[in-house]
């Protein structure tokens, strides 16, 4: 079998070009990024209804303390929280689409101020979220938090 050297160069050139071209954030990544920001804003506002609307009915929401919420208990607990967020950032988020699911990781940095005594408590967590495409929407399916 005869090989033409130019044909052998095509895969190498293609690989080189792909490594130079910046990654394209497609519509799914954009939708998840938008939902992620909406989720953060809802947390800051203690808006349980908004959190529930962004979450799947099967939500499993794990806190760094080890407690676990469902969609309903998260919404209720958020609405009845005895603190407000003085600040909350989702730093360095990464989104990886895998079929109809997305793996999202970020550093959760904020400060809670408790209503009763005004005590401020800093939060520094690593968060893992799994989002699932349900119909045309991306919904939060699970969340895990680890203290840093």
TrEMBL record:
Residues 32-140 form the DUF4440 domain. It comes from Variibacter gotjawalensis. It comes from the Bacteria. Keywords: Signal. This is DUF4440 domain-containing protein. Residues 1-25 form the signal peptide. InterPro entries: DUF4440, NTF2-like_dom_sf.
């Amino acid at each position: 079998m005869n090989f033409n050297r130019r044909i052998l160069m095509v895969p190498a050139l293609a690989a080189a070009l792909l490594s130079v071209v910046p990654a394209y954030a497609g519509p799914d990544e954009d939708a998840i990024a938008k939902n992620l920001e909406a989720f953060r804003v809802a947390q800051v506002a203690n808006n349980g209804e908004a959190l529930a609307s962004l979450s799947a009915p099967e939500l499993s929401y794990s806190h760094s303390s080890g407690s676990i919420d469902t969609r309903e208990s998260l919404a209720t607990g958020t609405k009845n929280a005895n603190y407000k967020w003085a600040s909350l950032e989702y730093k360095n988020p990464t989104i990886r689409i895998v079929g109809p699911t997305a793996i999202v990781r970020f550093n959760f940095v904020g400060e809670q101020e408790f209503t009763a005594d005004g005590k401020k408590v800093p939060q520094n967590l690593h968060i893992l979220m799994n989002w699932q495409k349900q119909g045309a929407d991306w919904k939060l399916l699970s969340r895990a938090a680890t203290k840093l």
